[in-house]
Amino acid sequence: MNMKNAILSLTAILGTLFMYGSQSTASGSVVVDRVVAVVNGEIITMSDLQREEALKKSNGKQEERLLLEDMIDRKLQMNAAKRAGMDVTDKELADAVEDIMKRNSMDSKQFESALAKEGLTLEQYKIELREQMTLSRVYNKYVRSGLAVDEAEVRAFYEKNKKTYTLPEEIRVRQIFFRLPENATPDQSAAVREKALAAFERAKKGEDFIRLVKELSESENAEKGGDLGFMQRDQVIPEIEEAARTLKPGEIAGPIQCAGGFHVIRLEEIRVQVKPFEKVKDEIAKMLYEQKMENTYRTWLQTLRSDSLIENHL
């Protein structure tokens, strides 16, 4: 739980929290509140649950039940904090409020005015802030404390899940390129294709492909042997990619017509790369740490529940 975010977000999320009192029917009669849960002798009422629903903007019976379970969990955690003597003192609370005002460049009058716009008094705000601070404190003690992920765990996960870190397949192609004149006539197109076909036949008979590139190709990279370098398949000209799809390294295809001319290609290499461990180890470590926190939190909550008396009347 990020303390800064939890505290700074309170003014935004608590606006509706205290706006729900006793409700009335259309006829004006008061709806009697009822107990929906009891946690170690502490009650949660329907109005408490309705405030939570308003805060979370939820509706429906299933969501209502989940919200109540969450409220029960918070009660259990607050009880654990009280037993461990982890209550937030008045001074700590006052210091936190002072820090929030400083961060928002407000004096006390401006701060109370901002709370009032959200339908809150300073005292109401402090009640919720104290709970947030207490929950953060107890979470750090019973969940985060002592958790760590070492490099051996990260390495083991990486080795077991290399497919997850596999990059898209890449191909490396060389080309002999024959340019079509702009607005080429059918006769011109046929003539250029014949030149490309002749180059293809020479390459198929075993002539050195790089020498043919330097002799015949009209591409800008002819002097570099027509090497297009490694490219992911979806980055290759579609006609070339389609032709290369059926080739094995060292095999030749052509003539292939594209918008600018005809190509004779040789597939040089296919490679599938895996992201290096050093590039992904921090990402893996963070993910494993969060998994450990989640598992520890769930186990701790289960322990709190098994050691507590809980009645759910919803």
Q: Mind explaining what this structure looks like?
A:
The chain is elongated and about 90 Å long. The chain has two domains: 3-148 and 301-312, Triger factor/SurA peptide-binding fold; 170-271, Roll (Chitinase A, domain 3), CATH 3.10.50.40. By secondary structure, the chain is α+β, with helices and mostly antiparallel strands. A hairpin with a 2-residue loop joins strand 5 (252-258) and strand 6. Helix content is 53%, strand content 15%. It has a four-stranded antiparallel sheet with strand order 4-3-6-5. A three-stranded antiparallel sheet has the order 2-1-7.
Sequence-ordered SSE layout with sheet pairings:
Blueprint: H1 3-8, H2 10-13, E1 35-39, E2 42-45, H3 46-56, H4 61-83, H5 90-103, H6 108-117, H7 122-144, H8 151-160, E3 170-179, H9 186-204, H10 209-216, E4 227-232, H11 238-244, E5 252-258, E6 261-271, H12 277-306, E7 310-312
Antiparallel strand pairs: 1-2, 1-7, 3-4, 3-6, 5-6
Helix pairs in contact: 4-7, 7-12, 8-12
